[in-house]
Amino acid sequence: MPRKTDARDRAIATAERLFRIQGYTATGLNQIIEESGSPKGSFYFHFPRGKAQLAEEAIDHYVATRIAVLRDISANTTGDALSFVHRIFGAFAAEMVASDFQYGCLMQNLANELPALDADLTKRVARGFVDSTEIVAEHFRGCGFTSARASSTAAALVAAVEGARTIARLERTAAIFEALADVSVQGWAAPEGKPAFELSSRRRRR
After folding, report:
1. Rg of the chain taking only CA atoms, in angstroms
2. How big is the CA angle at 33 (ends 95 and 4), to the nearest 5 degrees?
3. What pLDDT digit, counting tens, does each position of 128-172 carry?
4. Residue 123 contacts by C-beta under 8 Å, 6 or more apart in sequence?
5. Does pTM top 0.90 for this prediction?
6. Residues contacting residue 17 through CB under 8 Å, at least 6 positions apart
7. Which residues contact 16 (CB under 8 A, 6 or more apart)?
8. Of 16, 19, 45, 198, which is least packed with CB atoms within 10 Å of its CB?
9. What's the pLDDT at 114?
10. Between 51-75 and 81-98, two packed helices, what is the crossing angle to 10 degrees?
């Protein structure tokens, strides 16, 4: 008989996967319970408030994972804004390919269904974007960007990644991520005082 923690973790992982593929409204509790292999009694023991509570747990897990990925990329590109941006686009492109272009962003999917969400879920999704975007801004500040520029560049990068996911799912190709990475080199992610064209040319010659 599986441990209670296993049943709980399986339910969260299943909900996260289905929310990313189908969205919140289209995913029912019966499907989550069936695909996670969790008995109904066990499910409601762990999630007495049902689907809303499970969605909260799925959001928290998704955001924690996203932040861990961003922190890891940041740690491996200290002081280098351009490599940081390229690695972010590369990481999300690789995830899209690995999921056979099925996975969207859980937070984006839920944000697109705001009328179906309660106030607590809406706040959780908003906080997830804020917290993960701050990790990106923090890296840019460490690259010498002013606070204002770091914040605006981070917001632009996150918006670009979210848009790229949608296009990649529709076209079933990760080409949009590479295109956006190139644009970032030529413009908004270039260090202060460095000509964008010069940076782009140097990078291509490497």
Report:
1. 19
2. 95
3. 999 999 999 999 999 999 999 999 999 999 999 999 999 999 999
4. none
5. no
6. 103
7. 58, 61, 62, 106
8. 198
9. 85
10. 140
